[in-house]
Amino acid sequence: MKTYFFIFTILISSFVCAQNNQIVNTEDGRRVLLKADFTWEYIDVESSSTSIETATNEATGCNLASDFKEPVLNTKIQAQLKKGRATISHVKAKVAKDNNCEVADVLLVSVSEQKTKAMYHFCANGTPVYYKRIGTTIIKKKDLF
């Protein structure tokens, strides 16, 4: 009976330890709660005064703040993608060509990048567009429905 109780206690405690949430800081200083179910949320919510400053920009159509800066990408991944011509500069050139605008008009809003695949969110000439990269192939993300 003691053996079963001991095994049951160890089993329950391992489940409790496996469900921990983590708090991390991003490069720009914001705190993010990483949940055990692979979701996340910001801990520090913006105040109403800063949300007024980040109101939509009428000229661009993308909801970007006036002091918006593009995210910094991993230099190791970008160096590996240079051989296959799939760096962020190549992706921006493709986005500019597809949207009939200049490369300077393409802003990287957010990115989820790995060595083999990536998801990009751009603001191209005032229009939000989504692209994905699989290997070195860059294609526009399309909705199924």
CATH architecture of the largest domain: Roll
- General shape: elongated
Low-confidence runs (pLDDT<50, min 5 residues)? 47-60
- Total number of β-strand segments? 7
The CATH topology of the largest domain is Nuclear Transport Factor 2, Chain: A
User: How many DSSP H or I helices?
Assistant: 4
What report would you give on this structure?
There is one protein chain. The protein is of the alpha+beta class and about 140 residues long. It folds into two domains: about 1-45, no CATH class; about 55-145, Nuclear Transport Factor 2, Chain: A (Roll). The protein is built from four helices and seven strands; from the N terminus they run H-E-E-E-H-H-H-E-E-E-E. The protein has a four-stranded antiparallel sheet. The longest helix has 17 residues, at about 1-20. The chain starts with a helix and ends in a 5-residue tail after the last strand.
